[in-house]
Amino acid sequence: MTGAFHPPLRTLMGPGPSDVPPQVLEALGRPTIGHLDPQFVTLMDDIKRLLQYVFQTDNALTLPISAPGSAGMEAAFVNLIEPGDKVIVCQNGVFGGRMKENVERCGASAIMVEDTWGTEVSLDKVEQAFFENNNIKALAFVHAETSTGVRSDAKALAAIAHKHDALVIMDTVTGLAGIPVEVDTWGIDCAYSGTQKCLSCTPGIAPITFSQRAQDVIANRSTKVQSWFLDMQLIMGYWGANTKRAYHHTAPVNAMYALHESLRLVEAEGLAAAHARHALHHKALVAGLEAMGLSMAVAADVRLPQLNAVNIPEGVDDGGVRAALLEQFDLEIGAGLGALAGKTWRIGLMGFSAKAVNVRKCLLALETVLSAQGANIAAGQALAAAEAVYQA
Description:
InterPro entries: Aminotrans_V_dom, Aminotrans_V_PyrdxlP_BS, PyrdxlP-dep_Trfase, PyrdxlP-dep_Trfase_major, PyrdxlP-dep_Trfase_small, SP_NH2Trfase/AEP_transaminase. By secondary structure, the protein is an alpha/beta fold. It has helices spanning about 20-30, 40-55, 70-80, 95-105, 125-130, 155-165, 185, 210-220, 230-240, 255-270, 270-290, 320-330, 355-370, 380-390; strands at about 10, 60-65, 85-90, 110-115, 140, 145, 150, 165-170, 190, 205-210, 305-310, 330, 335, 345-350.
């Protein structure tokens, strides 16, 4: 018999998961009850209310899918898209490419609008794609691209889609609770996220919301949803408004305790305060990185405060730096993905990870490791620059 697994205590400043607050970890250890227990049904109702708050929506079809954020993406497409449909898919990073895969696996056509990785989705290109193609079913885009640290203009993108009577599908896995997400105000028909980013919950659950227009599309499909597990018409029998719930699957009860606690903490802080906190620590981190001599990979006006893409200095061993940070400081930062692999680091300031102690630790650790590698940086400047932001 092997011994029990005891993970090291890390500081998680990569692209996710983020640090999990003690209250959320404690919630995981509460007694397990049945997934149809009346007390659990009461909890489900409050989780739905809290998800409506963080998504800023009154959508009745708002729930947590019992699977990670990638399942939220798949749920969006398999419910709304049918064979023969045409979908404009915006790609400016890895996850736009995954949207394309989902569209094609639904038997639909993906009309790609591609932008350089590290830049926002071009509104002009999207507008042009609508003019060049008829009968577009939906526009799909990533609000906060985790692979690049770029924020695109969700409100403006949705407005273009509305003008052409298309549905709007938005990936906000990294956006939710870190920057404003206003589903109803922007007119988003489906938005999905993940629990392990700015919600600072454990991985494995995908919050999702569908507008009434999207629900009507689902109800009037001419073909069955290709996924039984992700079929919203079946899931709503379990997550619906009635006190009598129909069995669909065994929900991860303890994980839902954790989600409820993480959402409760967001509500207690308030979304505006959470957004301001992420922005403050981002500003301090960037000040420290730039004082050290490092440069940011994304223009200031479209940077995500919760996901910071940093250019790797010439001659620096990417993997060696990340390994040293983990071994010497128990600090995790992320590697670049796809076209940016080996060119950028992704430093997360998400949820519970977005705090001054983490910013200071990251700057000190990076300076130490880069200096040991002989990198051309300005030593002794980073912490003072970050503190100047905090004291302003």
